[in-house]
């Protein structure tokens, strides 16, 4: 399903490891290994946790193989650290063209219902988190939000003062048009003219 995607881009690493490890027991149905790997290879992974989970499947080795690696053979080959770039500059220090992203927040689930929309201008290549930050700077009373840091990157806990709850099984879901995003707010990069919706939802 979904052209090789298994769940979402975060679950792909573990799914590939599990399917590869159990391929002899996965009869009678076959899974399209090449299609699934093409999804992984086409994605620009940013989160260390996602990279750590997908690498074993990509190299055909398990975490247990790490004990036998010859680290001395790779000494001195690690890349030099780079200084962080300004969000408004590209990789060569050239200003990135601005784009406009439609951003809306909606709650029809709990308390006083609301729906607010705005048009945000950010440099191309900006993450959804940066879009949300600009919206909050321009209109803090409406678009303020809070996040917590996780091993998968920033997780949005509340928007417009409304927080998700494990007791109520509520959370903020992010969609592009009608489709749920496959990445988190810290890595997803909206394109020009895209409509990103944050919808207070239940699971």
From TrEMBL:
Cyanocob(III)alamin binds at residues 8, 53, 155-156, 181, 203. It is found in: Secreted. Residues 125-197 form the Transcobalamin-like C-terminal domain. GO terms for molecular function: cobalamin binding. InterPro entries: Cbl-bd_prot (IPR002157), Cobalamin_Transport (IPR051588), Transcobalamin-like_C (IPR027954). GO terms for cellular component: extracellular space. GO terms for biological process: cobalamin transport; cobalt ion transport. Keywords: Cobalt, Cobalt transport, Ion transport, Secreted, Signal, Transport. Pfam families: Cobalamin_bind, DUF4430. Belongs to the eukaryotic cobalamin transport proteins family. This is IF factor. The gene is Gif_0.
